[in-house]
Amino acid sequence: MTPGEQHERFDHLVRLGRAMHALGVCVVLVLPTAGEPVLEVRSASGTLVRIIVIWRSGWAFTWRPWWARIWPGDKWVAAHADNAADVIVAEVGV
Predict the structure, then answer these.
(1) Contact partners, residue 16, CB within 8 Å, separation at least 6
(2) Are 18 and 8 in contact (CB under 8 A)?
(3) What pLDDT score was predicted for residue 1?
(4) Which of 10, 7, 15, 8 lies closest to 81, judged by CA?
(5) Measured between alpha carbons, how far is 61 from 49 in angstroms, rounded to an integer?
(6) How do residues 75-86 score in pLDDT, each as one tens digit?
(7) pLDDT tens across 64-73, in order?
(8) Residues 6 or more apart whose Cβ sits within 8 Å of residue 78
(9) Is this prediction's pTM over 0.90?
């Protein structure tokens, strides 16, 4: 992954975090020394949900486990969608 792609992922997660915070959701942006940045959210049931940014014909947010990303599914939303935070909050059950 190029530095530009890493920067884009970070920007998308920061933007999503701010949007979710504006909706009253407590989020934590995790920046590991090795690996990709992750936005962490606790669902209403107490489950820790980790949101990452992947390339899927464009940047997209997903909250599925890494192994589930190889199959098509509905647990993702386009990173440029105006309602990405609303969709994720509804899907995750925050």
Answers:
(1) 39, 51, 61, 79, 84, 85, 88
(2) no
(3) 72
(4) 15
(5) 12
(6) 789 999 999 999
(7) 766 555 655 6
(8) 58, 59, 60, 61, 84
(9) no
Give the pLDDT score at 36: 85
Mean pLDDT of the chain: 87
Q: Could you tell me the two tokens for 44?
A: 């209403």
- Between helices 3-22 and 84-92, what is the axis angle to 10°? 70
| CB-neighbour burial class of residue 70 (10 A; exposed 0-12, middle 13-18, buried 19+) | exposed
Alpha helices (runs of H) in the chain, residue ranges in sequence order: 3-22, 84-92
Q: List all residues 6 or more positions away from 75 whose beta carbon is below 8 Å from its beta carbon.
A: 62, 63, 64, 68, 91
The pair of three-digit structure tokens given for residue 36, joined into one six-digit string: 């990709």
User: What is the tens place of the pLDDT at every residue in 26-36?
Assistant: 999 999 888 88
